[in-house]
Amino acid sequence: MEDLIKKVSYLKGYADGLDISPKSDEGKLIIKLLDVMSEMAEAIEDLTESVGDIDEVVEELDECVYSIADDLYGDDDYEDDYDDDDDDFFDDYEDDDYGDGDDYFEIQCPNCGEDVMIDFDMIDDDNAIVCPNCHEEIELEFDCDCDDDDCGHDHE
User: What is the DSSP letter of 58?
Assistant: First the structure.
């Protein structure tokens, strides 16, 4: 964009060198046009900077979304479905894709305080998970209300 501002400045200098009279109708028109061109060049430069800033934020958000999706769905599920040009990507991970919601529950991490959605498949043999936010281990305690002796829990 500096080129556009330089070109407008060159034209202003060129007009000054031609001794265009600011009193003539043509001189007034040329001076006003050069002023408008200068303002437009500055506005375009400001917009270009804003778009660059927005582009950086979007790239950061994209990396965050990728990281979250990786934590939630694993590399294979996310990378196979992810396409920068696919506007319907997130439709692939709607809530109804995960059944009736019985496989997931929400807890608050005791370390960082963030709410964490837990899938029963994420729980290791020691009844613990790793918080996707702070990466600290969260120990879970379960009270089994079932009457099934084959569920794997102690029934007292």
Answer: H
pTM: predicted TM-score of the whole model, two decimal places: 0.40
Residues 126-156: tens digit of each pLDDT: 778 888 888 888 887 766 666 655 555 554 4
Print burial letters for 58-80: b (CB count within 10 Å at least 16), e (below 16).
Answer: eeeeeeeeeeebbbebeeeebee
The encoded tokens of residue 20 equal 């265009």
Enumerate the H helices of the chain as residue ranges.
2-17, 25-81
Sign of CA dihedral 112, 113, 118, 123: positive
